[in-house]
Design goal:
39% helix, six-stranded antiparallel β-sheet, Glutamine Phosphoribosylpyrophosphate, subunit 1, domain 1, 626 residues, 27 helices, Rossmann fold, alpha+beta
């Protein structure tokens, strides 16, 4: 595990530049650093030692050192790949899991990435062909950003904060990214907060050589075979696939920990890990028990402590308050790298800090089960019948209605949403600011020419020939919400304290399996994650198997009306960088205050996204890169 940075550029660059870039990633790898420079390629990394503690320093190479690798992540099927490669005559110089990439590249070329079960960001220099290859894993767990200097030269890094250490880059702020932020609370890839910096898409690799720079998609070839869709067979296959994903993600030469909230997903992961390891540390947030009108009570720590005793883990509850989270906001903002306003990430940040203080470098997470196995509260409503693509002109012309409208009953919301076009319905189930709300919060002049945030749902429908059945809504969450919110949150917030977050439900085999399931396997008789509950009913107590979903929910609306109200005042003041840059105007504050105190709709996360953007603009020297 490490953070990587480097560039392919023909003219000489000061060694201090790569040092500065790599130094900005020290939180991703505080244990050691490595560098390489030859011809037009320069690369570097910071290492977090997880496997092969004594060896495994990067760069990693093949036998004749014609393949040079900098790599961030873990390859969980590396033991099997290593045995196969040794049988083919390859010799290894380390026990590091990433070395398999060098040797497998010799055999497979760029097809190597299809063979890797893991999370990774890769920078591979092929000295013979004089080409740089960048690649990201299938689910998108590990980040990788780049900017092109010209048709053949580029700069790359695991995080934008490292990338912008390279002098002379165009760091124009991206209005489209800012427009999208209040809707999603994050910036959809491949765009970033900077117009000329891009995320390499998940499941893609980039080739930079003398011919130019090209980007290619590769396929998820794990678990591609057909399965029987009979209940018993689906349950058995789900059990096998999930068990394999969890067990493979225990690959570590250092102690492993796990999140444990006592919900279904984290309980499955922790239970399997506790059975396989001699010792497992588990962690849960103990939270002030504020009632959230959308999700209910906030604190789950007592239930987590009770279940930790049953499975015999070394458990710790981290008690946090609104004041603790307030004190962490600047850290949260910094390590989000870009503006990232998913407030539940504050909880992950607290757990990662506690894990590191207890000597734990690896944390397993239960994220992804909802998107793969049908866990969100609105999924039972997805099979509501509707006529035509858009019979809601009268409704959509009024005030926005979504799952954030707490003054309406579930039945009333469903009745309205059934009339929405599929793209708007996808927004309404899961997201935050409506286009009209942003029109009032932002300065219209700054955003002339931006596209609707609903374009992401429209493009999904177009790629799927316009179909929007129940399974399509869930699959869209799996391909969009899961990588850009959940995986980004786990990676950034655990890495803030040099802890490696691992997500078994993001395994390529699990994602492939989920794509084969039908709606009745996911939601049945009002039960969410039906097949996952049945698959593990024999090893979990009934109170966990039958427990309704309850995510970790920060009562942001409650705080912004009280303890955090000064953040709203500061963000929408005339001295804010938002106002000075023309992003907001003199009317924005009044709109924000009205939205916070709206008696029928939760708007706290929308306003929180502006607070985070305000903090990010204060932190980042985005306009002085020379």
């Amino acid at each position: 595990m490490c953070g990587i940075a480097g560039f392919k550029i023909s003219h000489a660059v000061s060694p201090q530049i790569i040092n500065d870039m790599v130094g900005a990633l020290i939180h991703r790898g505080p244990d050691s650093a490595g560098y390489y420079s030859a011809g037009s390629f320069t690369g570097g990394m910071r290492r977090l030692k997880i496997n092969d503690l004594a060896g495994g320093e990067q760069p990693l190479c093949n036998e004749d050192k014609s393949v040079v690798l900098f790599y961030n992540g873990e390859i969980y099927n590396s033991p099997q790949l290593r045995n196969m490669l040794i049988g083919n005559g390859h010799s290894f110089s380390t026990r590091c899991d990433g070395e398999v990439i060098c040797h497998l590249y010799e055999e497979e070329g760029t097809n190597v990435f299809e063979k890797l079960d893991g999370m990774f960001a890769v920078a591979l220099w092929d000295a013979k062909l004089r080409r740089l290859i960048l690649a990201r894993d299938i689910p998108g767990e590990k980040p990788l950003y780049y900017t092109c200097l010209n048709e053949k030269e580029l700069v790359y890094a695991s995080e934008i904060k490292a990338l912008i250490k390279f002098p002379g880059l165009d760091l124009s702020v991206n209005p489209q990214a800012i427009w999208d932020l209040p809707t999603f609370l994050w910036i959809p890839e491949p765009e970033t907060i900077f117009t000329e910096i891009y995320a390499l898409p998940r499941s893609h690799f980039l080739v930079a050589d003398e011919k130019g720079i090209t980007i290619h998609r590769y396929q998820n070839r794990f678990n591609r075979g057909a399965i029987s869709l009979e209940d018993g067979d689906v349950i058995a296959e789900t059990r096998k696939i999930v068990e394999q994903a969890v067990f493979s993600r225990l690959l570590s030469d250092v102690p492993v920990g796990s999140f444990l909230s006592s919900g279904l997903d984290s309980s499955i992961v922790a239970t399997l890990a506790a059975r396989a390891l001699p010792s497992l540390h588990t962690f849960c947030i103990g939270f002030e028990d504020v009632s959230d009108p959308y999700h209910g009570r906030a604190d789950e720590s007592a239930l987590a402590e009770e279940y930790a005793r049953k499975i015999g883990t070394k458990h710790r509850t981290i008690a946090v308050t609104a004041k603790d989270f307030r004190n962490d906001l600047m850290i949260f903002c910094k390590y989000g790298d870009q503006p990232f306003a998913v407030s539940s990430g504050l909880g992950i940040l607290s757990v990662a800090r506690a894990a590191r203080e207890n000597g734990i470098k690896v944390l397993l997470s239960g994220d992804g089960a909802d998107e793969s196995f049908g866990g969100y509260s609105w999924y039972p409503y997805l099979d509501d019948h509707f006529d035509g693509d858009d019979v809601s002109a009268g409704v959509s012309a009024g005030k926005p209605v979504s799952m954030q409208n707490t003054a309406l009953s579930a039945a009333e919301i469903r009745k309205i949403l059934v009339g929405y076009a599929p793209a708007k319905r996808a927004w309404a189930w899961h997201y935050y600011a409506d286009e009209k709300e942003k029109d009032e919060l932002f300065n219209k002049e700054y955003f002339r020419g931006v596209k609707s945030s609903l374009r992401h749902f429209v493009s999904f429908a177009a790629a799927n020939k316009g179909t929007w059945g129940p399974e399509d809504f869930i699959r869209q969450d799996r391909q969009f919400y899961f990588p850009y919110e959940m995986l980004r949150k786990v990676d950034r917030m655990t890495m803030a304290f040099s802890v490696e977050g691992r997500v078994p439900f993001a395994a390529p085999s699990v994602l492939s399996h989920a794509d084969k399931l039908r709606f009745h396997h996911l939601v049945r008789d009002g039960s969410l994650k039906w097949v996952l509950r049945r698959a593990f009913a024999d090893i979990l107590p009934p109170e966990i198997v039958d427990r309704p979903k309850h995510g970790f929910n920060v009562p942001i609306d409650h705080w912004l009306k009280g303890d955090w109200s000064d953040l709203v005042e500061e963000t929408f003041s005339l001295s804010s960088p938002l106002y000075k840059m023309g992003i907001t105007d003199s009317k924005s504050r009044a709109t924000a205050m009205k939205m916070i105190h709206d008696p029928v709709r939760l708007n706290g996360h929308t306003i929180f996204s502006f607070i985070i953007l305000h903090m990010w603009l204060q932190q980042v020297d985005y306009g002085n890169n020379s």
